[in-house]
């Protein structure tokens, strides 16, 4: 045994060293650039320390016990084969985890309400709304306030709350910009709200975090946070230089496949809400398309979204 | 006509055009031919049929479960190594995206449903009747049916790899991706029917063991005197009884969506994909406790045996098992805190999830204090148990971190999560079942596994595990998301991914050592003469010869303590001889039956027909199932008695061996 432990300990230390030696700015979750991510980082550290209160003593205790009570002839440690119960001891270790979990639960509940993703951020500035739509397999971002739209690229002004509205055209995705804060699911037929904010200028990684099919890995995007002035300049330049996204263009964009970054000077009005509402039947409720029409499989192909210009071709396959 | 058929075979039926899969197809074909030739050459067909395929003996069924599980571990492991190879280097073009997606899907399904579950049922079958002093399970025929349903379900799932196409929508197949709109291929149907057929078997096994444990205990054995492994089987089986029907219903609804165009989980027509996500996790979360609880049971028995000391805090342990199994039904939502259910709901499920840490923590303390003031020998089962404790404690702590709902918004679906559940599933379930296999191996086969090779395997698995999964925690904090089939150079994920891949291959090497260990131990077989192979056995299974005779106990034991065999040995050491047993009586045993095997073949046929929408195949399949049910109903002669002279002969022969 002894030689194995001697061999294992340096290995573990090396391993930890390797892990910690990576540039710390790569640990995006622990290096947040916005208030939400900041709170979540604090919460993560609180959890780590609370857990460590139990973890460290237990690991040490394990090592000591395994070592001290190994079966050796000259082992002088006590041996009590029938000692099987101690109300005092057992009360202690029912109590310790209960106390730790009670503390952690209290902290968690408080943070859960504080960090509810749809809760607006406190700020002197008016929030900007950006709508994020997960398509197969690219992100479409529409800026209703500016009338512009982008694909796989986000530009935002620093120190301004961003109100993201998030949905998916088809498969469920998750919208995640680790350095700004936690993710929210992008689900078809629903518009989720997520408030985030960047406190400084910089480029951040964004991605789809829930598997959506074949080219899911291509759904990463760049988030560029700039000064207000740069943001305005960027919006103006997009308006002047980029093409408009038309209904036709959107239909093409929706076709399965990955995409480069794109910018559009305009997009069809209410596009995001159309995507959200596309599965709602003509009666305004989620009724099966035209009601009576029966028959297997191709049912889904019916006129359920006749009011919507964005007919899906899902059932043809 | 022939050409059309050929085109169908080559274009639709078989998966063609991938060298990896072609290699697998050829090797599967060759090994099947080799098996048939070997069976014919050695004239073993009748032996195979009478001794194994038709057996209702719990010990043989257990062995078949274990063999099937190890084969599935091999396949799931190869999947894992392919995944890790693809991720070793940024933008590697080793597996294309579709293939990669299929591989991580099958890796997940196989490891949980077709590796962990059968290995667990294998241990249930081998150990429980022996531990409680019974001669078989409560429903031996149903037990056989459970195994064959599992087996043919697993085969149906696995066949999709070479025929028709593998599922590729993730191991829990969230709609709408798993609906016809997202997965028009056949893979998803193989998924549904493979799991559905084996799921019936799992549910039946759960019921079987609950009844066995409640009704078949040896005279005198009170519930609070059962060995801890048996308690863990009871808690796990009760969980199965409540959880598996949810899985069956959920997948059935998904099947109706896909097959008949219903709208339970579709986007349109009033369907709600999130309903599926809720339902599947109402099964899925209890499922992970179903597989971990018996591992806890194994650790309890092993730790007490190899510390030569009574299990500390028996009542706490029982209470902890049962409360974990109860609370496991109230935590499902923590798998999707990010669905936006609101702070009330998230807070509730965050707290229920954390609650599970309490009984689990208590169990760890009790294991530690079982060793405390004991005498620990580092046999193979004990090594795995000792390695389990730190591994599982760390994994449990990261689990608590994940349960903190607002923090989970940053961990969810990242490699932090991947590292967490692999740590509890490998460090907990796999280490636990390995400990159990090594522990009860001599009871199953009558010989021990080679020690030196086993230690090699142990260290390779352990080192490999940490090298593979510790970097993944870091990768998660770097923002690496699960199920990415490739990543860019500029993300800085490269070094740790390579480390992780190396770790995976070290574990693969560990598995090879285990195969070698088994082969070596068979070749240089040293017959285990005593039934009490470790010399320190505490429970009834060690009081009978290894392997146990068909009827297990010639005389049913009288039980007065939870460590009955150990107490008995203490009494004998003091010179108190056991009460002389009465005369032998004929033993009532179930007859072998081929119906479970045949019925499961018909289930397979029907399932295969459903996958392909072939009515001509579905109908005979279902008729076959019905006929088997019918035939069994009119079988008035399912049991027999072993006459006393035969028992005497068997016992005398076993004594001779001793």
UniProtKB/TrEMBL annotation, chain A:
Entries under InterPro entries matching the protein: CcO_II, CcO_II-like_C, COX_ARM, Cupredoxin, CuRO_UO_II, Cyt_c_oxidase_su2_TM_dom, Cyt_c_oxidase_su2_TM_sf, Cyt_o_ubiquinol_oxidase_su2
Record's keyword annotation contains ATP-binding: no
Cellular location(s): Cell membrane
Annotated region described as Disordered, given as residue ranges: 283-317
Keywords: Cell membrane, Electron transport, Lipoprotein, Membrane, Oxidoreductase, Palmitate, Respiratory chain, Signal, Transmembrane, Transmembrane helix, Transport
Superkingdom of origin: Bacteria
Transmembrane segments: 7-28, 43-67, 92-113
Biased composition (Polar residues): 305-317
Principal location: membrane
EC annotation from Swiss-Prot or TrEMBL: 1.10.3.-
UniProt cross-references to CDD domains, sorted A to Z: CuRO_UO_II (cd04212)
Membrane topology: Multi-pass membrane protein
Domain Cytochrome oxidase subunit II copper A binding: 125-237
Reactions accelerated catalytically: 2 a quinol + O2 = 2 a quinone + 2 H2O
Function: Catalyzes quinol oxidation with the concomitant reduction of oxygen to water. Subunit II transfers the electrons from a quinol to the binuclear center of the catalytic subunit I.
Family: Belongs to the cytochrome c oxidase subunit 2 family.
Protein's recorded name: Quinol oxidase subunit 2
Species the sequence originates in: Paenibacillus glycanilyticus
Lineage per the UniProt record: Bacteria, Bacillati, Bacillota, Bacilli, Bacillales
UniProtKB/TrEMBL annotation, chain B:
Ranges annotated as spanning the membrane: 20-42, 63-83, 103-128, 140-163, 190-211, 231-256, 276-299, 311-333, 345-369, 381-405, 417-441, 453-475, 495-519, 594-612
CDD domains: Ubiquinol_Oxidase_I
Source organism, top-level taxon: Bacteria
Pfam families for the chain: COX1
PROSITE patterns: COX1
Keywords: Copper, Electron transport, Heme, Iron, Membrane, Metal-binding, Respiratory chain, Transmembrane, Transmembrane helix, Transport
KW Aminoacyl-tRNA synthetase (keyword) present: no
Record Gene3D superfamilies: 1.10.287.70, Cytochrome c oxidase-like, subunit I domain
Segments forming domain Cytochrome oxidase subunit I profile: 43-560
Family: Belongs to the heme-copper respiratory oxidase family.
Protein name: Quinol oxidase subunit 1
UniProt organism field: Paenibacillus glycanilyticus
């Amino acid at each position: 045994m002894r030689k194995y432990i001697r061999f294992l300990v340096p290995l573990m230390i090396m391993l930890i060293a390797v892990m910690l030696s990576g540039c710390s700015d790569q640990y995006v979750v622990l290096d947040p650039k916005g208030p939400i991510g900041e709170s979540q980082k604090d919460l993560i550290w609180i959890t780590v320390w609370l857990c460590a209160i139990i973890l460290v003593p237990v690991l040490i205790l394990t090592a000591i016990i395994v070592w001290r009570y190994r079966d050796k002839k000259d082992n002088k440690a006590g041996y009590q084969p029938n000692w099987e119960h101690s109300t005092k001891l057992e009360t202690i270790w029912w109590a310790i985890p209960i106390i730790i979990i009670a503390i952690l639960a209290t902290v968690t509940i408080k943070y859960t309400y504080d960090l509810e993703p749809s809760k607006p951020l406190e700020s002197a500035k008016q929030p900007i709304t950006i709508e994020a739509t997960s398509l197969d397999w690219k992100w479409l971002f529409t800026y209703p306030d500016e009338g512009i739209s982008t694909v796989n690229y986000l530009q935002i002004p620093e120190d301004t709350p961003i109100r993201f509205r998030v949905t998916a055209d088809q498969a469920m995705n998750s919208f995640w910009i680790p350095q700004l804060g936690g993710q929210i699911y992008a689900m078809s037929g629903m518009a989720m709200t997520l408030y985030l904010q960047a406190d400084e200028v910089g480029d951040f990684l964004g991605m789809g975090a829930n598997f959506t099919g074949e080219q899911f890995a291509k759904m990463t995007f760049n988030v560029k946070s700039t000064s207000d002035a740069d943001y305005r300049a960027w919006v103006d330049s997009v308006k002047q230089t980029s093409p408009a996204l038309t209904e036709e263009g959107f239909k093409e964009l929706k076709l399965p496949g990955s995409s480069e970054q794109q910018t559009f000077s305009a997009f069809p009005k209410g596009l995001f809400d159309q995507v959200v509402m596309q599965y709602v039947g003509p009666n305004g409720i989620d009724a099966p398309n035209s009601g009576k029409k029966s028959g297997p499989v191709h049912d889904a192909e019916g006129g359920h979204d006749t009011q919507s210009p964005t007919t899906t071709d899902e059932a043809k396959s | 006509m022939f050409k059309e058929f050929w085109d169908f075979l080559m274009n639709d039926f078989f998966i063609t055009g991938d060298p990896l899969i072609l290699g697998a197809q050829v090797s599967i074909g060759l090994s099947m031919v080799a098996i048939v030739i070997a069976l014919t050459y050695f004239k073993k067909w009748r032996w195979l049929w009478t001794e194994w395929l038709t057996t209702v003996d719990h010990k043989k069924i257990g062995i078949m479960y274990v063999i099937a599980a190890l084969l599935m571990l091999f396949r799931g492991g190869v999947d894992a190594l392919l995944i890790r190879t693809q991720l070793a280097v940024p933008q590697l073009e080793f597996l294309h995206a579709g293939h990669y997606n299929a591989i991580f899907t099958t890796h997940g399904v196989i490891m949980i449903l077709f590796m962990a579950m059968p290995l667990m049922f294998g241990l249930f079958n081998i150990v429980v009747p022996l531990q409680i002093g019974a001669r078989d399970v409560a429903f031996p025929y149903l037990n056989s049916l459970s195994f064959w349903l599992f087996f043919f379900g697993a085969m149906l799932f696995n066949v999709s790899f070479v025929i028709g196409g593998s599922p590729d929508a993730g191991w829990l197949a969230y709609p709408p991706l798993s609906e016809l709109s997202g997965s028009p291929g056949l893979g998803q149907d193989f998924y549904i029917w493979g799991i559905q057929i084996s799921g019936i078997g799992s549910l039946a096994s759960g019921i079987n063991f609950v009844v066995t444990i409640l009704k078949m205990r040896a005279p005198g054995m009170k519930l609070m005197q059962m060995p801890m492994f048996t308690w863990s089987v009871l808690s796990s089986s009760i969980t199965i009884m409540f959880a598996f029907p949810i899985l069956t219903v959920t997948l059935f609804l998904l099947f109706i969506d896909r097959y008949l165009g219903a709208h339970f989980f579709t986007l349109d027509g009033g369907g709600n994909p999130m309903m599926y996500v809720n339902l599947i996790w109402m099964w899925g979360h209890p499922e992970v406790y179903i597989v971990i609880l018996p591992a806890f049971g194994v650790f309890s028995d092993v730790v007490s045996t190899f510390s030569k000391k009574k299990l500390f805090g028996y009542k706490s342990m029982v209470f902890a098992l049962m409360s974990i199994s109860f609370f496991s039904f109230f935590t499902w939502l923590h798998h999707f805190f990010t669905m936006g259910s609101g702070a009330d709901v998230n807070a509730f499920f965050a707290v229920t999830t954390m609650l599970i840490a309490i009984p689990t923590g208590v169990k760890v303390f009790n294991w530690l204090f079982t060793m405390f003031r004991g005498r620990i020998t580092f046999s193979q089962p004990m090594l795995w148990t000792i390695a389990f404790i730190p591994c599982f404690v760390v994994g449990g702590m990261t689990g608590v971190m994940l349960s903190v709902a607002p923090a989970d918004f940053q961990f969810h679906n990242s490699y932090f999560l991947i590292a967490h559940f692999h740590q509890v599933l490998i460090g907990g379930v796999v280490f636990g079942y390995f400990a159990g296999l090594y522990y009860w191996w001599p009871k199953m086969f009558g010989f021990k596994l080679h020690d030196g090779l086993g230690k090699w395997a142990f260290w390779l698995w352990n080192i490999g595990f940490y090298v593979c999964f510790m970097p993944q925690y870091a990768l998660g904090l770097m923002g690496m998301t699960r199920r990415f089939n490739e990543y860019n150079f500029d993300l800085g994920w490269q070094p740790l991914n390579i480390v992780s891949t190396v770790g995976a291959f070290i574990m693969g090497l560990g598995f090879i050592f285990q195969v070698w260990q088994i082969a070596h131990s068979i070749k240089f077989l040293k017959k285990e003469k005593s039934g009490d192979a470790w010399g320190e056995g505490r429970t009834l299974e060690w009081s009978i010869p290894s392997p146990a005779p068909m009827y297990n106990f010639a005389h049913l034991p009288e039980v007065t303590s939870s460590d009955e065999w150990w107490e008995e040995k203490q009494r004998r050491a003091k010179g108190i001889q056991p009460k002389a047993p009465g005369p032998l009586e004929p033993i009532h045993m179930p007859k072998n039956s081929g119906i479970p095997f045949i019925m499961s073949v018909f289930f397979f046929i029907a399932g295969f027909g459903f996958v392909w929408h072939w009515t001509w195949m579905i109908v005979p399949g279902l008729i076959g199932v019905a006929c088997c049910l019918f035939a069994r109903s009119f079988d008035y002669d399912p049991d027999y008695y072993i006459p006393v002279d035969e028992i005497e002969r068997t016992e005398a022969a076993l004594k001779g061996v001793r």
